Please model this.
Amino acid sequence: MAMEIQFTNVTADYKIGPLRTAQVLYEINLHIPSSSFTAIVGPTGAGKSSLLKTMNGLLLPKEGSVQVDRFLLDQHTEKNVLKLVRKKVGLVLQFPESQLFAETVEKDICFGPLNFGATPQEAKKLAIEALHHVGLQEDILTKSPFSLSGGQKRRVAIAGILALKPEVLVLDEPGVGLDPEGKEEIFQLLTKLNRELGISILFVSHDMNEVARFAEDVIVMNKGKVTFYGKKRELFTNEELLTNMRLELPDALRFQRQFENKIGKKLGKICLTEEELADVLMEEGYV
Amino acid sequence: MNKLLLGRYVPGTSFLHRLDPRAKLVSAILFIVLIFTAENWLSFFILWGITFGVMHLSGVPSSIYFRGIKPLLWLIIFTATLQMLFTTGHRNFIEWGLITISDYGIQTGIFIFFRFTLITLLSTVVTLTTRPIDFTDGFTFLLKPLQYVKVPVNELSMMLTIAFRFIPNLLDETQKIMDAQRIRGNEFGVGSIFQQMKALVPVFLPIFVNTLNRAEELANTMDVRGYRADQKRSSFRKLHWQKIDTLCLTVTIAIMALLQLLNSTM
Model:
């Protein structure tokens, strides 16, 4: 499955009411390869959510263009092209559970596929498949989405997007507001989708532990610009960038820094997760 | 959706922004009465002049006003056209079944068009230059006499404050949910009227649910912070009546008198 996204000189802004807000994206140039797993980080108002919206055509660039597969998104893109792009790039907004509306979970998940021209039978099949992906049982299909718990609602909402069979899945803070267990499950799901189905995943996050554990690449944004795009290990070894962007360290790395300060010497390798850190500590004979 | 100007405030420092909300409200109401009672070309000419003058004074770019009036334009034109088609007068130009186009009909049609447009523009001036909270304070003050006939003015004003306060939230949320459903392939403003209405169901239902939830949360928060409806309350904000407010009202009344004079002599 080859699905690349290419940003060329993208500048964009919103129109809120009669007023235009200042530019939210400024001259973005990015190339996101197929089957990648990318985290987008940066302070609030850096343009992270806007970047996600431009990939799906909810926000069209004022200048420049976004190339999704063979479709070009800019000011002149037609509605039917937008629809094709939206089927390929599934976007899960922040707190996606607020979009649930149907009487039953089944109807809600089928809503997307039906809009994109699936027959009722196909839609039901897709719904069941999506439900399995997010780890829910089929008996939930007949329940009202409003009777579910918070974590279940979120998973149903994500299933609603997965049922579209997107080739790129873009999520705006998928873990926020969930308990640790719920978060873990969501990210396990994303990892599985990425590895088994080759779906590209892009997610916005403020939690550096999530970034360090699950992402492969990281995009750092600040004031509407991309200030870093590369492998996560590159980011976490770049002290200057981390302090400039006021990015927190993942727990394991913070522990490592304190440990190194105490013993007065550096460990052999930068550790991003607890497992890595434990291994290095064992290898070097500290425990 | 975000074309709607209702309840939006454009910050500024113009004369109109500084005016006491009570003066603004009373003047606006008087002008609306004037607009409704105007019945000749000269009065409308003067009223258009005043409206444009006030719009200019507000310091808000006029393009914003016209964008605000755009969604209502079709409704206004529709009403005016109905007037034009079904009113008989001295000279009927076309008579075709029920439809008659007459000199009188054309005039009333144009006047109705003027009235609606002027009222929309004037009230937009007021809402664009008055903070919702000031607006409510002014409104509460003007309703105060009704307390003596047991109208719960304070509660009404609290309701109004809350309603105003949540308009931007509601608009933002609507936008968000529309986006969310658009992602799932829902298309707005496409197809027959029936299809268009059907496309709105996935938007309105979540909004209803969220609004009800939020209302309950808000009620609980108010309870927790000790809000009691039956108690007398003081206000944190004080309105200050100044010379320019008296001036504004005087000018309004003078214009009213002038137009009345014009009406009676013509």
